[in-house]
Amino acid sequence: MSTSNPLELKLHHLSSPGSDSQRLDALSILRSHLPVSLPLYRRLQFGRFFSTSLLFTNLNLLKPTTEPRGESNGTTDDQTQQHPTPWLFAFVDRTCRPETEVWLFGSWEVAPAPPSATEAWHEIDQLVSNLVRACRDLPVPRSLHQDILEAQAAADSTRSSESSGVEGMKARDGSVRFQTESVMLWGAIHEATMPVLRRLDVLSDNYQEQAPNHTFVFDVDALPPAPALPDGMMWGVIEQEYFGLVRSKSAIPRWERTMASLPSLAIYQDDATKATSAPIAWAFVGLDASLTTLHVEPE
Known about the structure:
This protein is an alpha+beta fold. It folds into three domains: 128 residues, no CATH class; 36 residues; 77 residues, Gcn5-related N-acetyltransferase (GNAT) (Aminopeptidase, 3-Layer(aba) Sandwich), CATH 3.40.630.30. Helix content is 32%, strand content 14%. A five-stranded mixed sheet has the order 1-2-3-4-5, sandwiched between helices. The protein has a four-stranded antiparallel sheet with strand order 6-7-8-9, with no helix packed on it. The longest helix is centred in the middle third of the chain and has 19 residues. The radius of gyration is 22 Å and the shape is globular. The relative contact order is 0.12.
């Protein structure tokens, strides 16, 4: 008599008919682990799913259905408490490269850390290894930003051939990272998962020793009212003509098609030149609902 492997990952297509039941089931489980699960939770809420948008988990989700369901329905966290092994959810979409292709949440990120070198850590390592292999074995589709990537590669090649030293190396490194299909960008990785990735030896040497990013969670209802802008300034949004300016101010790859789909807020000078003047401060709400690309121009 065969038994299922509790560490075996199941693949769910988020754009398939009836897939909402599985997505809402995942959200129901992730909701009880907020705020740690917030990046993946918001990414699944945001949508923008394509035929290549996948959800991996080793939990048993509800079967697809075409019946309408509210987000408050679906399984509770009972099945995760009954699950004898670690579990994870991962959103994967390789068409997003060079932007974030994977958002991950694992049960060990909210549980007391097991003692080192124990069977518990071995199972976690095995589960994440299964996810890495599953991502590696996926066909690599054309990027949503392929035309931009090709233009970027050509520009980098020109700069690297004309430059020497650090600037030339930066150009070559950027082109290689954007064009290499074997490189994946995983976003908002929890500090409890980083040692797992290190043990699996799957991290790029360029990112092994980078300082961690911190996630700050704000209770919006508890924030004080926004103060009025100083005289001579006005609120607006980032228009498409300024996407290039936004990209030039950030080292994080974020492309025009993505920015066009994100809510934004900007500050402009409140005068007759607004039609031709660039914004002086801006921010976007990212695909995972984080405040992203926050920037203020120097005076």
